[in-house]
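Pair request: fold both.
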Amino acid sequence: MKWADLSRKRMHDGANAIGNLMVEGFHYLGLFAIGAATAWASVVAFLGMVDKGHASIDDILLLFIYLELGAMVGIYFKTNHLPIRFLLYIAITALTRYLIGDVSHHRAPDIGLVYLCGGIFLLSLSVLAVRFASHRFPSSKAIDSTGEYVGDNLMDNH
């Protein structure tokens, strides 16, 4: 029965190799598609600013959102981990952009302004909490899909 076990192991290893290839291929295809769409959208937004002949603060904040999205894709590509801080930064920038757009259109201040400022404040506290937690309780080394360690291990420094 040793031949059956060896055959089963070879079949299992072959299926794992093909499955890993397909999953990683889809993973990279998705990352490149998201990165390309982000780059394309940022170029279109920039060309729109050039066409207008000026850039408003809304336009500049939109470019910051695209920059954060691109950085997030790059970090995810390198480490296979999605940094939650980048999502929080994007949300803060998006709310700030909305707030500035709302105020610049000379709308009368109402409770919505307080909600927006409260949302920005809560997101800022979330960034602080995530930064504190990641410093106080560092994670172990990140492992990519091949089993290799990626990035720095903060626990080795203590």
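--- second member of the pair ---
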Amino acid sequence: MTAAPAEHASTTSRTIGIPEGLRLDVPRVEDGAAIWRIARDSRTLDLNSSYSYLLWCRDFAATSVVARDGDGRPVGFVTGYIRPQRPRTLVVWQVAVDHGQRGRGLAAAMLDGLTARVAEELGIDGIETTITPDNTASNRLFTSYARRHGAPVHREVLFDGVLFPEGGHEPEVLYRIGPIPAAVSAGR
């Protein structure tokens, strides 16, 4: 696997504000079913079992975020975990926004809010995620995140499509973003 050329922006770090009427929160076990429904209804994510979303809200809440509407209902989420072999790296597993909240910058606001919190609490200075080549929205989300925070992006194929048991799966491209200057200063 060969790393693609790094993209690096010279802009200063800035975050996207949460859309009006919404708030970011740490997920709770009770949010698992709603998060599963948002993932299912996205029709783009690989849907995990409903049980896994309950576990995620219990075991990885500190490295995940949920966006809530004015009534406290989840309308978006980002799930993540700290990579054991790279303890200063947050791996972003899934990002999803309810259909009624799309187009408001919520995914970017959740990603910014989550990484700022995890940098402060756990000292991360980079993020990783995988994206299939056909997922334009995720590509834009993560490259714009890197640009906003003045961080380089390195890409390489992590899992070739032939490794997946079902036919026709696209390769999963690993995006490594960092070091993130704002995360470094927030985490210390």
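Observation on the second member. The chain is about 30% helix and 25% strand.
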